[in-house]
Amino acid sequence: MNFRGRNKVTPExxxxxxxxxVFLLLIFFMLTSTMVTTNxxxxxxxxxxxxxxxxxxxxxxxxxxxxxxxxxxxxxxxDLETKILxxxxxxxxxxxxxxxxxxxxxEKAVAILDIANxxxxxxxxxxxxx
Length: 130
Hints:
This protein is of the alpha/beta class and 130 residues long. 31% of the residues lie in helices and 16% in strands. The protein contains three helices and five strands. It has a five-stranded mixed sheet, covered by helices on one side. The protein is rod-shaped, with a radius of gyration of 30 Å.
């Protein structure tokens, strides 16, 4: 008498579907890692309680044609200091983003830096990433 069953369970495991998934994940991460560029330092910041206020920065742009814009509003060179100071009526921390187009004479950017220095305004020079 043969008591063996007809349904035999094989202890084999097929890895083909697992290798497909791993291969697709590998391709995904290789493609997305080339698109991500970090321009920041890896810093561990201290912990603190409270809410950090988001500062509204004022942007001043200088074009190649020596046209001045404060937040997309055209301004004459003569009125620059009064218009810049009008942007900071009651702010404690004043900051200005200077966007000088390539080819603008350095004297024009230094004039803006001088205005900011006289009025205790912090200036950030905007540049294009490489």
